[in-house]
Hints:
By secondary structure, this protein is mainly alpha-helical. About 75% of the residues lie in helices and about 5% in strands. Strands 1-2 form a two-stranded antiparallel sheet. The longest helix is centred in the N-terminal third of the chain and has 27 residues, at about 35-60.
Amino acid sequence: MSVQQTRSIIDHVRVFHQWVSQYYHRLAESTQRKRTKLLLDYMSEHEQRLANCLKEYEESAPHRIMDTWLMSTDAADATQLIADSESVSDMSVDDVIALGIRLSQCAISVYEDLADYSEPESVRETFANLLHLEEKALKQFVRDAGRLEDL
């Protein structure tokens, strides 16, 4: 557990999305599998869009929400998830999708905890909205990745 301002938590998640986007980009550049590359390029763009949404939110959110101090749980260790994953040259499209889902769950778990336990209500609602955004983005990713099989 740590004590952080709302702005710090959101900024950490934004940086996480940027980092994951860059990770997917590097993987896309290193694979020779056309479908895997296509999916990884999509995933990189998807993560960058999420980072951009959080940046816009950070810039427009009320200071009273962003300056609120919170007890937060530490996120799942995404670095360990990546380290435990197979080399991209050995990963199937399904393996890449599974990795994408697991990494998305890192942000979702942070928002779930904060949406359940944050005070005041305005901050709790903020994290509930961000949780909804992440869940919606995950559903869109799964749907779009499933379409890859139609190619």
